[in-house]
Amino acid sequence: MKNKKKLLFVMTSIVLLMSLVVAGCSGNNGKNGGNAENDAESTSTLEGNEERIEITIANNFNPPEEDGNYVQKQLEEKFNIKINNVKLDRGTWKEKFTVLLASGNIPDIFPIDANETDMVQWADQGIIASISPEEIATYMPNFTAALNSVDEGAWGVGLYNGKNWGIPKVWPGGLDGFLPGYNEAWLKAVGYTEPPKTLAELEDVLTKFVNNDPDGNGKKDTFGMSGRGKLTEQLFTTVFSAYGVSPYQFKLDAAGKVVYGGVTEETRTALTLLNKWYKSGLIDPEFITADNIDLNGKFIDQKVGLIDNMKWGNFDKNSGFIAKPASEKGLTVIAGKPVTGPNGDAYAFAYGARQAPVLLGAQLEKDEKKRIKVMQLLEYVSTTSEGFLLTNFGQLGVSYDMEGDLAIAKTDEAAAATKIGAGAFYNPLNSVDISMTKHTLKPELISLKEELNAGVTSMFDILGPAVLNSKAKYWGNLKSLQDTYLIMAITGEANTEKDFDLFKEDWLRSGGQEVTDEVTKELADRDAAK
Q: Could you tell me which residues belong to the region Disordered (predicted)?
């Protein structure tokens, strides 16, 4: 706590501080007529003469228009609590929240967008609470099971100075790998009845996309593929993944040693192949400056026949990336599986599911009753249909209707989610339990996801979010160094022999080795804490 005090005197005036607190924390203690949803999964309402506990929730997602809204009242009634809302905007939340903390008004539940860097800073300042994984598992058993089913490694993100901070969080969609999307008509035109399955077949397809006039216009004016050069992490992932590497992720080598993908022999080999394809005209030279909007245009204008940074949802007919624009032009994009490389590898690049935890105010460390109540509340809203539907959609028949398990939000303005308090404000863990997707995805989309992701092995960074001192010092320069070499190697301005060796030496010498060593240590610390 004494560290927190050091923060107080460098902040904005007390007048601003208190005006924010009054505006953000004013609660409403009104009662309602009971719970509209009568779900058998729900946690039973707490009864008796238990003292009413005040819980302050600060969030920058879907702030409700009014205090004392329907969702708030339902939660207050169910858990015998009084909720104080601290409503923040996505764009300005950090500045205002910092001012709030400086005033000494520490909420019990912190905003969703707080990241791992915030966690370390606030832990050092005595602003957030540590909480044991064992206690979380005790009072949030369904949540714990849901989290572990997605990625048990998520617990490591909240580990700092030998303690766990906050409630771990995952985004399951981060495990969905990138899939290649092909112009179906072009495939048929070059003699393929299905997408290629191997890297060799892919090269054959791309070669024929260039040389065999797949659009039938009598001109040699097509390329095999393009890439998202403005976001190099997503560049030609199909090729790199076939060699079992992502150039911008850390991985374990064959000996179990931590290595950075960008300086491995697998990346050298993949770049050699990409340069060969580039020189052969298989790759659109404008990939260097392309973003997704450009890829949309290239595909629907039939300039390229393959886009490889799509995910399963992009193959839905209503997806604004590729599928819908293509359909409007009479084209069909068909999903392929990750192609198998020369060593038998077939992976799909993914970002990973791990995220920074939902942080809790330091006062909860000493207030066991409130700490348990917060965990019970979070368990309810994240893992029961009743709590999930209430916090995400609001009031049945008023702000949403049900079609089987699927919740259908009403579209009239009077039923807007923010008017009733629905959204992520009261449910910062609403994406963790994948069983809840039955309420948010149409059955046909669930089937599409299962079909396209079947048999796909996603490849993501072995560490995920972490506060690394070396990364803060060096990563900007290292990223720029790598981006420059990567593009030059593909286009042939740099070779993949001596120039790759020089790039690797430069990357390691410029801080890359220090970052790699720190990643190795962080992984060891996480393993030791299990």
A: 28-47
Residues in Cβ contact with 400 at an 8 Å cutoff, skipping those fewer than 6 apart: 389, 393, 394, 407, 408, 409, 410, 415, 422
C-alpha distances in angstroms, 482 versus 99, 144, 149, 246?
38, 38, 35, 13
350, 209 contact by CB (below 8 A)? no
Q: Which of 163, 164, 116 is nearest to 140 (CA)?
A: 164
Residue boundaries of the structural domains of the chain: 53-174+354-452, 179-349+482-500
Tens-digit pLDDT profile for residues 42-62: 444 444 567 899 999 999 999
Predicted pLDDT of residue 514: 98
Instruction: Answer whether 281's CB lies under 8 Å from 210's CB.
Output: yes
Tell me how far apart the alpha carbons of residues 53 and 76 are, in angstroms, rounded to a whole number.
Answer: 9
At the topology level of CATH, where does 53-174+354-452 sit? D-Maltodextrin-Binding Protein; domain 2 (3.40.190)
Q: What CATH code is assigned to 179-349+482-500?
A: 3.40.190.10
Number of residues written out for the chain: 530
Tokens coding 22: 């009054």
Q: What is the DSSP letter of 132?
A: -
Predicted confidence (pLDDT) at residue 20 exceeds the cutoff of 60: no
pTM for the structure as a whole = 0.87
Q: 195-222 in b/e burial notation, b at 16+ Cβ within 10 A?
A: bbeebebbbebbbbbbeebbbeeeeeeb
pLDDT at residue 48, rounded to an integer: 52
Same fold yes or no, 53-174+354-452 and 179-349+482-500: yes
> Band of the pLDDT at 497, cuts 50, 70, 90?
very high
DSSP 50-87: PPPEEEEEEESSS--SSTT-HHHHHHHHHHTEEEEEEE
Contact criterion met (CB below 8 Å) for 303 and 436: no
Q: Residue 286 has what DSSP assignment?
A: G
Q: Pick from 292, 314, 330: which is nearest to 178 by CA?
A: 314
Residue 123's nearest CA partner among 138, 112, 110 is 110
Q: Show the DSSP H helices in 329-464 as ranges.
A: 368-383, 385-393, 417-420, 443-453
If you average pLDDT over every residue of the chain, what do you get? 91
Q: How far is the C-alpha of 57 from the C-alpha of 107, rounded, in Å? A: 6
Cα dihedral 414/433/246/348 (nearest 10): -90
Q: Are 382 and 150 within 8 A, CB to CB?
A: no
Query: What is d(CA 438, CA 405) in angstroms, rounded to the nearest whole number?
Result: 6
* Inter-residue contact 417 to 178 (CB < 8 Å): no
